[in-house]
Amino acid sequence: MRVFAVSDLHLDYAANHEWLEQLPRHEYNDDVLILAGDVSDRLSRLDHAFKLVARCFSTVLYVPGNHDLWVHREPMQNSFEKLDAVLAAAHEHGIRTDVFRNDELVIMPLLGWYDYSFGAADDYLKTAWADYRACRWPGYDDAALTRFFTDSNPVHSPMLTGAQRIISFSHFLPRIDLMPERIPDKHRKIYPVLGTTALETQLRAAGSTTHVYGHSHVNRRVTMDGVTYINNALGYPNEAHFTGRQLVQVY
């Protein structure tokens, strides 16, 4: 059994949808796929994606990304309703959102959001970042929303007991130094909405030694303080020169 990972499929782009459609039907039938969020903001496309990956892999594990929870183009009251619909679609196709164990290997999903532990949001970010318009979280600010998600994470699950290898995954970044030094200053304006340090605390408390994440569209594999962090975003078509646009094996 092998474990592969990909994130940020963004199937609203035809080229990305074509990439997914062309996944081999029989090459990965004994393998696991980690799908680390941002499949599509359209529920119908997300549902179709679940159907496609479920037929290719023995097991698919998923956490929603921020785009998956947009409601500005869906007939839904708020993003909590969208979250319920997304999870229902996943479960309908056998896509797992819980802890997976195979012998001594455990794969653990970690939900999250951003709480500005990576920096404060300035006026530019509040205007430019689409989540502020596309998501609706009534009664919650971003810090409370992050706690809502992270408090539900299974970091003390009995499934972890005795595991020899723990792989965790999230859509959002668990630490901002995963962003490489080469990133230009103009692009660092979005750092406050890339994730939360709460995820780093949780993955280490669980004993994870490999963590898969998405969201940043900056693909890399780096080991920090004993944990190997892997980002493998498909990304937007115009990012093909720096995203691999292929599955990456993580186990």
Strands, count: 10
Q: In the CATH hierarchy, what is the class? A: Alpha Beta
**Can you tell me the residue ranges where pLDDT is under 50 for at least 5 consecutive residues?**
none
Strand percentage lies at 15-25%
Tally of separate domains: 1
The coarse silhouette is globular
Look at the helices and sheets and give the structural class: alpha/beta
Could you say what the CATH topology is called? Purple Acid Phosphatase, chain A, domain 2
CATH superfamily: Metallo-dependent phosphatases
GO molecular function: hydrolase activity
Organism: Dyella monticola
Protein name: Calcineurin-like phosphoesterase domain-containing protein
Pfam families: Metallophos (PF00149)
Keywords for this entry:
Pantetheine_PDE, hydrolase activity, about 250 residues, 6-stranded mixed β-sheet, 10 strands, Purple Acid Phosphatase, chain A, domain 2, 4-stranded mixed β-sheet, Calcineurin-like phosphoesterase domain-containing protein, alpha/beta, Metallo-depent_PP-like
Description:
The chain is of the alpha/beta class and 251 residues long. The chain contains 7 helices and 10 strands. The protein has one domain (3-249): Purple Acid Phosphatase, chain A, domain 2, CATH 3.60.21.10. The protein has helices at residues 14-21, 43-56, 79-92, 123-128, 131-134, 142-150, 197-206; strands at residues 3-6, 32-35, 59-62, 100-102, 105-109, 165-169, 210-213, 220-224, 227-231, 248-249. The chain has a 6-stranded mixed sheet, covered by helices on one side. The longest helix has 14 residues, at 43-56. The mean pLDDT is 97.
